[in-house]
């Protein structure tokens, strides 16, 4: 079996997932298949021996193709591409119906109203659990700006979301802040996912370094693992105040009535998977912050 044959086999193994990703972005089974075919043509000659996560890499390639298709959709509609001999075979018509049933016509209508980058960010993060760091290069934004794209999309998708729907996320953030203030390590670990991460921007890192003697934590750009995240926040966040940040539960630290730091939380599966510390003034100014009552 040649390298190309092996890649084709691996591509076919991931095809169902890639078609689901493309369908949720494009809302058309035919266009989804076109996107997957185009992705195959882009990667068919690549050496993937050094790719650690082939499924994630293929998802990224398909997402970029879909973004290009969304951006050109309003100006022109292309006829479906003819089947190419060098593209792994299509899946069955039954799979097309399954895709349509899985997403639902109501959500498709709402997704059609989103800007292309918003739609890509929302679909990849909220439906396929990709991190904002992974999505950012696809939509050519910073991770924080990508988070904003997904947040705007999420608010439009949810519409007037009942308070009860957002309550679990808000309660999780409040439990994290309470455990942090109390220095309760076990309570912190209880709300963190095992592979939780903390991200800090350059100003947050420098500020923490200058306040080591006052008990500030040692921060790096990214720290992995619930235990490390819990140690960073244990006994701290005493002045943090709950807030809605880009429509999602978070927290801020203010001085003199001005927000100097924001804590952005990513929540999946009923646990906090990442905390992002933002102190850069330009980034803070771009965030939509509403202090909790």
Model description:
This protein has two domains: 156 residues, Up-down Bundle (Butyryl-CoA Dehydrogenase, subunit A, domain 3), CATH 1.20.140; 129 residues, Nuclear Transport Factor 2, Chain: A, CATH 3.10.450. It is built from 13 helices and seven strands. A seven-stranded mixed sheet has the order 2-1-6-5-4-3-7. β5 and β6 form a beta hairpin. It is globular, with a radius of gyration of 21 Å. The N and C termini lie far apart (64 Å).
In short:
With 293 residues, the chain is of the alpha+beta class.
Topology:
Elements: H1 3-26, H2 29-43, H3 54-73, H4 93-103, H5 105-111, H6 116-127, H7 132-139, H8 143-158, H9 163-182, H10 185-191, E1 192-200, H11 202-210, E2 222-224, H12 226-233, E3 241-245, E4 248-255, E5 258-268, E6 271-278, H13 281-286, E7 289-291
Parallel strand pairs: 1-6
Antiparallel strand pairs: 1-2, 3-4, 3-7, 4-5, 5-6
